Here is the input.
Amino acid sequence: MKKRRLLTLCTAVLFIGLMSCNKDFLDTQPLDKVSADATWSDGALSEAFVFNVYSYLGYGGFEEESMASITDEAMFTHSGRGINVITEGTLNETSIGNTRVTPQWDELFLAIRQANIAIQQLPESTFDNQDLKDRLLGESHFLRAYYHSQLVRFYGGVPIIDRPYELDEDYTIARGTYAENVDFMLADLEMATSLLDGKPETPGRANKLSAMALKARVLIEAASDLRDGPTASANSSVLGSYSNLDLVAYASGDRMARWNAAKAAAKAVLDATTGYKLDLSAPVSAEEGKMNYMSIALGGGSSVGDAAARAELLFERTHSPLFTRESNWPLGGIHQGINNGPNGYHNWAGNTPIQLLVDDYEMMDGSTFDWNNPAHAADPYADRDPRLYATVLYDGAPWKPRPSDVAGIDPVDQIQTGFYDDGSGGIVNGVDTRKSSIEDWNGSRTGYYVRKFIDPDPGVVDNQSSAQVIPWPFIRYTEMALNYIEASIETGDEGEAISWLNKIRFRVGLPAVTDSGDALMDRYRNERRVELAYEEHRYHDARRWMIAPTTLGRGIKVMNTTATLKAGASPNVPYVHDKDKYDYTYLSIDNTETETRQWDDKMYFFPISRDEINRNSLLVQNPGY
Here is the structure.
C-alpha cells in the first residue's frame, strides 16, 4: 500500500482520531453528495463504499519509487527523492523521507477508519441481499487487518482503533502491545475467513483464501527473531535497552508454539488451493523455467506467458478501473515500463537492480555464483538460475523493439549497458548507459534494468499511452509455500521443508537440494530472496531475520562492462553484442555516487512522526529515536 491513491466516491470523509484535532472535518458524509442512510440502504452504494476502502491500496507496489530501492535488490536512479534517509539510516521524527516508498501512518489509519465505518454500518444496513452484506463485511474485516498489518510491520504495536470515532471524543489513545495487535489482526482475519467462505473469487477483491494467507503472513512474522523479545534484545543493543519492548515484540511466551501456528496456517492455504506448476517431480528445462517464472510475474495480464499462472495470485491489485481511476499517467502502476525501463527506449530507469542481487542467483547446477571462479567471472550471465533472465536486463540481453529514432543505433534490440571498442581507439557508449546519446540522465547507474513486471509484449510501448495491465501480487501462493518451508525448518521438519523447496526449484529448472541445518536455512533464505525479488518482501525479511546490518546495510555494487575487439576483428557498425568479435570484461565495482548505505538498528522500526506524538500525548516513540 502506497500513499498515492485516487479516491473514487468517498472524497468527503477525512481522517480523525489520532491524525487530527480539527473536529470541523468530522461532520461529513461517507459518500460525496450521498447520505449515510442512502448508502447503507442500497447494495450498490454500500459496495461502492467498500471499493473506496480498497482504493487506499493505490497502485500496489508499482509506484515510481519502489521498495526494492531501500533494499539490497535495487537503487533508485534519480537523487533527491528522500530515499537516502532510509538507506543511510538517518530517518527521524521530523524527516520521514519519501512517502511513496513505504506506507504512511496517517494514510493507513485513514484507510482503517473507512473500514471501521463499513464494519459498523453493514450489520445494520437495510438492503435485501444477505450474501452481499456478508461479502462486504468480510472484505472490510480483511482490509482493516491488511492495513493494520502494514502499520505493525513498520512501526510495531500501534493504537488499536476498532470503530470510527465520534464528535467530542477524546482521541488520545496508547499503543497496544505487539501481542495485542497480533490478536486483533487474527480476530479480523478469522471473521473475514468465515464471512467470505463460499463467496466469489473476483480478481482484485479479497476472498477466503486472501484472509487465510494474510493470517499465515502475520504469524510467520510474529514467530521471527525481531518479534521475539529475548532474541531481539540479544541481537541489538538498541532494542535491548528499550524499556517498552512489548510494543514491538513478544516480551515472553512460547516461541515454538508461534512457529507451529505459523506452520499450520501456511499449510492450510497450501491445502486449500494450488499454485502454478508446483507438482513437478523433476526440474523443467532452463527455457521452460524462465517462461514459468515470467508467466507468474505477468499474472495473466499479458498476451505473453501462460495465463494459468494467475493461480498464484491470492490477493492482487488488478490495475483496472474497478477501484481507482487510472488517470495519473505516467506515474502509476500501469506504467511500470516507463518508470523502470531503459533510457534507450525513452524510459526512466527508476529502480535498477544492483550487483548484490544479481550475484545471488545460483548457477544452473545449483552451485553458488563466484567472482573468484574464472569461468563465472568471464561470462557472468551464462548458465544461471532462469529467474535471473526473467527479472533482470543486462548487457546483451534481448528486449523489445527499439523506438524508430533508436533503431539505427541498435538494430537487433539488445540491451546496451556497456562500453565498446570502436576499432579506432575510441569507445562506443551503450545506448542504455548514462553516456548515451538518448536521454543520458535516465540511464542506469548500476549497469542493469529490471525486467520483472514489465510486459514484454512488443505491442505494449512503455513510453506511450498503451499502458500495461500486469497485476500487483500483494500475496501469492508461493509466498505461502516459502512460509511453510521456513516454519518447517524452525520446527525441525526438514524433510517437509526440502520437499516444498524442491517443488519451487523444479518449476524454474533448478536441481533438488539436500542441505540440512544452517545450510538449509541459508539455501531457503536465498531461494526466497530471488523468488520474491521486487515484490516488497526483502525489506521485511531482512529486518525480521535481523540480518539487516549485513544485507540492507551493505554498500552498492554495480556492473561495469567493456568490450575489446579480438585481434584481427573488425567492429560491428552499428554495434551488436558479439562474443566472436569482442572480448568482454565484467567488473563488479562499488558505487557511492548517490548513496552511501549503512545500517542503524533504530531502522528496525520507523519513527512515529513528531506531529503524531504532539497530537496524541500517549504515544510512546520507537527505540533509537
About this structure: DSSP finds 20 helices and ten strands in the chain. Confidence is low (pLDDT under 50) at residues 1-32, 323-331.
